[in-house]
Write a structure and sequence with these properties.
95 residues, alpha+beta, two-stranded antiparallel ribbon, 2 helices, rod-shaped, keratin
């Protein structure tokens, strides 16, 4: 029975670690999407300028700038004095 309990605890720890890793990857992916969107907006602005579009000022650029913060979280769990999962919180700010 103890062996089965140990197996279950190990499997639960592994599952928690996998969930944490998936969440981290999802957060990184979202951060990359945010960067891509920002770059696409900048490219569109430069194209407009190159094509002789409307007057463009620094104030226009500042108004279009957006800031977002992404928080990445994971959890830590101890089993028999050993770390099986870990909790971290990292805030990433994108412009």
């Amino acid at each position: 029975m103890e062996q089965l309990q140990a197996l279950v605890l190990r499997a639960e720890a592994e599952l928690a670690q996998l969930r944490s890793e998936l969440q981290r990857q999802a957060d990184e992916y979202q951060a990359l999407l945010n960067v891509r969107d920002k770059l696409q907006a900048e490219i569109a602005t430069y194209r407009q300028l190159l094509e002789g579009g409307e007057e463009f000022s620094l104030q226009d650029a500042l108004e279009k700038e957006t800031t977002s913060t992404t928080t990445q979280r994971s959890t830590q769990r101890l089993l028999d004095g050993k770390v099986v999962t870990e909790t971290k919180e990292v805030k990433v700010r994108t412009y």
